[in-house]
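EI: anyone free to look at a 372-residue chain?
SC: sure, send it
EI:
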Amino acid sequence: MWHFGLLKVVLRCTLLAALLAFAPASRSASDSGSPDFEVTVKQGDTLTGLAQQWLADPKRWAELQRHNKIENPDRLVPGNRLAIPASLLREKPAEVTVVSVSGRARKSDITLIAAGDRLREGETINTEENGYVTVQLVDGSTLRLQSRSNLNLERVRRLPGSDATETRIQLPSGQAEVKFNPGAAKASRFEIRTGFASAAVRGTEFRVGADARGTRSEVIEGTIAFAGLPPNAGPGQPADAVPISEGYGSIVDASRKPIAPVRLLDAPALPQEPVFQQAPALRLSFPPLEGAVSYRVWLAADAEFQQMFGAALLSRPEVSFSGLKAGSYVLKVRAIDKYGLEGRDAMVLVGILPDKPVGLQRSGSPAPVKTP
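SC: here you go
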């Protein structure tokens, strides 16, 4: 039997330990230089020989000569670095790995997706209501696909003989959140496309949301190139991309042109200390945020939000979840502005105490949350 006061102390220690997961990991500054892939010239190398080894089309060796300002393609200096534009490199198909699944998600053949699955180029992920999937991309970055989203792995490639990769994803509808791997090779390329826009990134954390009316993107860290796409756009690079830097977002509507970047709303003012309430409900109000027209909330059992219990879109700053059992949870809230851009996240640790002063259940999982 647990005493109520002791129970609160135990829960507080558990919640404060989980708080460490909220601290962002240190990251190196994103590289803003050329995405060229570099090869060290060895004794006996020639430009045509290196083109045969590295280029998708070896006949384009003359482009390497011009790019590197080489006078004699047959007399390269050992130890020098040869810069190869990433667009010329030969590639081979790769795979992404499913890290976690909460709720239900299916492939294009309607089979269920499970943690540990490996997905190939051309496969799709379709999340159902209250379904969430986290995947690790080929460059080590992570992508979190939200509920009721559809994603196609259009191009997933690795460059032979290097760590450089290329990933292009189609997001016809729904929301995806990407955290870039700071250790990814400089020549790696990553792009998400919707029916309206393209977000090309490197060294950043950002979100993309798509529906029948347009596309939005918000940058949490780093910078992306955001561009409108004409209907039935091909795989070529879009023109007139707008840079969106950290703390800003933009949208593309039927005009196919991104609006000037808009500063994202601040994180809502949630309590600084863990919140304790009694099972089976969580009720929490917070001050309204100026400029917010609505709020999006998530409740999970972990700080990475891989064990989801529910989510909701709120018209007022009042959170309400029911059906909760005793245990620790994490609540995440962000405000949404008039453009539909979602602001910075606020998170608070929540301890749900038993509704009666009886023993703390040490086994079993909380029941699914009924969202308001």
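EI: Residues 4-25+266-353 form a domain with the Immunoglobulin-like fold (CATH 2.60.40.10).
SC: 👍
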